[in-house]
Amino acid sequence: MSSSDLDHKIETLFSAEHISERVDALAREIIADEPGDILVVIILKGSFVFAADLIRALERNGASAQVDFVTLSSYGMGTESSGQVKLTHDLSEDVTGRNVLLVDDILESGRTIAFAVETMLTRNAASVKTCLLLDKPTQRKVDIEADYVGFSIDPEFVVGYGLDLAKRYRGLPYIGIVQDD
Ligand code: IMP
Ligand code: MG
Known about the structure:
The chain has helices at residues 16-33, 48-60, 111-122, and strands spanning 10-14, 38-44, 65-75, 81-89, 99-107, 127-135, 148-152, 158-159, 175-178. The chain is an alpha/beta fold.
């Protein structure tokens, strides 16, 4: 047991190797659809580890990606979404006329990514695509699907590889399920 899982029992769902293979495949899918310039908009904080691997996979596979960040927040300290999405830190780039790829960690209710897509369209992006590391399809509250999904999962609470529970576990190299007991 490592020092980071002293309080919760965490069962590995996707290993670091498994994630790495999937991220490379996602990059190839993204490039096949959009071989031109891409502005990768990373939705903080949960997707920063995934996004760091994805942009390097994009470069390795021949894409030219620029990067910007936005912080959206819908969760407090627990595991329940408050339902309201807030923009707490804005982009520094102008997205007008750009091919935007939104990158986020988990598609659950759909509210976060729907808000992000709407924001990019309102700002006149030329195109907006979405890339989500994880999808919990049974949890949707808004009618939206991602263009690219790493893994579809059951509605358990997961941590690691950037994902937190009350600000912990983001640094785990794998994705794991937090056990109830
Ligand atoms: P939604 O699609 O608007 O409901 O929000 C998805 C957001 O909720 C993600 O970006 C995460 O920040 C957070 N989230 C949802 N499920 C989990 C989970 O299992 N672990 C950690 N964060 C989660
Ligand atoms: Mg998030």
